[in-house]
TrEMBL record:
The lineage of its organism: Bacteria, Pseudomonadati, Gemmatimonadota, Gemmatimonadia, Gemmatimonadales. It comes from uncultured Gemmatimonadaceae bacterium. Residues 118-242 form the Coenzyme Q-binding protein COQ10 START domain. Residues 1-29, 251-276 are annotated as: Disordered. This is Uncharacterized protein. It holds the Pfam family YgaP-like_TM. Gene3D superfamilies: 3.30.530.20. SUPFAM superfamilies: Bet v1-like (SSF55961). Belongs to the ribosome association toxin RatA family.
Length: 276
């Protein structure tokens, strides 16, 4: 895949200090990306300001957010995913071991973030998710996920007209029972990254599961298929996936989809199956 001036390699941050730290406001966007965000955001804000109604206001706000991203060098999405483009050289060892991180063009990437509260302990939810081979049971667009080793996996997603989209991914950040972060590697057709967070719910009656995804649909005919795959409302699709996840973990059944008995769910949670 050719890399252009607008492409940015996402790398796992391994340093310390204010530049790449995980704290709020830490710089995690490289210089080239900051310039593009500032210029593109300024143009978008100007265009939105000239429009009328809600659409113009939303465009202006989006442009302002991009300008802020360029000026501050901080991206909330990258922060949530534990990624850093400001220190791309830090991924050298990771690239040698697992392959080069797939390139995400920040100006074209789509971000999705949704959450749900599940009446199940975080450890059980984490154990289910940690084995990515379980995910096709709750995500309708996934055909299969094959675990390759303790960090890497191969994903295949369904697309219209009998097409499919495949990519390899690696785990780049992990906190047992709290967080799993992953990203696509090598020349992925659909560069993407994601993370899932597990926290005790405010009322103490369950676990709040928050999913953050970012992906870049390709261009051309395949891009059209991917657009159909993810739908016009990607947040709605993720919301439905989380609804199925909640139902499966709480009742053992998946609504309006493939179902599984309670024993099947318990089997999926056994440590020997949590290979990833």
């Amino acid at each position: 895949m050719a890399t252009t001036a607008n492409d940015h390699t996402l790398s796992l941050h391994s340093g310390h200090g204010p530049k790449g730290g995980p704290g709020a406001g830490a710089t995690n966007v490289n210089d080239g990306e900051r310039v593009m965000s500032a210029i593109g955001g300024g143009l978008l804000a100007l265009y939105g300001a000239r429009q009328r109604g809600v659409t113009g206001a939303l465009l202006a706000l989006t442009g302002a957010a991009l300008v802020k991203r360029g000026v501050t060098g901080h991206c909330e999405v990258y922060g949530a995913l534990g990624m850093n483009t400001a220190e791309a050289s830090g991924g050298g060892l990771l690239e040698k071991k697992h392959g080069r991180a797939a390139v995400l063009d920040a100006s074209k990437a789509i971000k999705v973030e949704r959450s749900v509260t599940v009446a199940v302990p975080a450890a059980e939810l984490y154990r289910f998710w940690r084995n990515f081979e379980n995910l096709p049971r709750i995500m309708n667009h996934l055909e299969s996920v094959t675990v390759l080793d303790d960090k890497r996996s191969h994903w295949e997603a369904k697309a219209p007209a009998g097409q499919s989209v495949e990519w390899d991914a690696e785990i780049i950040r992990e906190e047992p029972n709290r967080l799993i972060g992953w990203r696509s590697v090598n020349e992925a057709t659909v560069p993407n990254a994601g993370s899932v967070h597990f926290h005790e719910s405010p009322d103490g009656r369950g676990t709040t599961v928050r999913v953050v995804l970012e992906y870049q649909p390709p261009g051309g005919r395949l891009g059209q298929l991917v657009a159909k795959l993810f739908g016009e409302e990607p947040e709605m699709q993720v919301r439905e996936d989380l609804r199925r996840f909640k139902s499966m973990m709480e009742t053992g059944e998946v609504p309006n989809s493939r179902s599984a008995s309670g024993s099947a769910v318990r089997n999926a949670l056994q440590p020997q199956e949590a290979r990833l």
